[in-house]
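User: Predict the structure for this protein chain, please.
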Amino acid sequence: MADEKDWIDYIASASQNLTNIKTIDKINDINGVIPHSNYSLNDNDTGFLEYSNFTTDDYCSSNHSHVYLNVTCEFPINYAEPMYGYIAPFLLATTTVANTLIVVVLSRRHMRTPTNVVLMAMALCDMFTMLFPAPWLFYMYTFGNHYKPLSPIQACQAWNYMNEVIPAMFHTASIWLTLALAVQRYIYVCHAPVARTWCTMPRVMKCLIYIGIAAFLHQLPRFLDRQYVPHITVWRGHFEEVCRIEMAPWVHALSLDGYFITYFGFRVLFVHLIPCTSLVVLNVLLFRAMKAAQINRQKLFKENRKSECKRLRDSNCTTLMLIVVVTVFLLVEIPVAVVTILHIISSTIVDFLDYHIANILILITNFFIIVSYPINFAIYCGMSRQFRETFKELFIRGAVTSRNGGSSRYSLVNGPRTCTNETVL
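Assistant: Here is the predicted structure, written as structure tokens:
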């Protein structure tokens, strides 16, 4: 789902269609129709080709399975159905509730800081990454309709946009927002004077807009790279109109190899490799700065400089919380990046990847990305007293928290605000 659902579609279709598209076209010319995607014993009477001895696995490994939209063959169904059909609905509900609470809490007046605005945008992107494909996941996997032909054309287009393109767009934005969050914190901790210029609220808002536009432009070709045309086939003894997938003429004009290599190459470099590498480096630098600040805090404590000591403690709390957020992100994103890089190498240099295993791996890694979405709420509640206090004031009856001198002067983890509305060392 989310980020790499679009990749799975092309593991099977793009890489195989690059070599099999001529064969498929010849079959279309000869037979006029192609049997439906899900064939089991005596399930379909095609009248054209004999599939009575085909199992679903046999059919999905054949050239015919990618002629038109075939949800059963997109994923290893034995894994996809329980994960996306039975577990994902609970994760969707949990993510929607948790991220909505994050947005409500962080949007409170006294919680509006540059860091909190980025955290709120991340929560929205993660939630939309799950909300858009949710109706289709329910229909296909929860209600067990993945084997049925999908029609009309508008339904096939909606499936493509809502299940692949739009979630990938929001997840891409979430990745870049996480990088922006880490860069912002690095500036606060290691270059405090610069933060007064670069980490103001107007600049952060502009950064969020730029990230949203860049994520949309990155996925724009995916809105236009394929088209669905009506296709008549015989399914379970009667004629059925399904959607045949065709690549757009402009993609053929560029060449399929050139288009897919460019798209996935850009994605590997700018959505996976550079962000993940940068986040690892920034996490290490932030951790070192936090340890140095801890040593400095101990010296201040011995000198009885309690005010400065408290400021360093609060800043370290903020830094530690964001390190944890970024670490959780890296744990689920790096495996996806590795498999995607292997796919690029296997498609362009040497063919070594077993795509059945790759499909299973990418399915599992995507599932863990979904699992990670509600975790940030737990991190904020566990590591931010100010977040907990605001949450209690909003949702727990009678829980009124006193703000000594105004806790509105504090950021997400009780850090005293400067003129940049954020914690600095």
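Strands lie at 226-235, 238-247.
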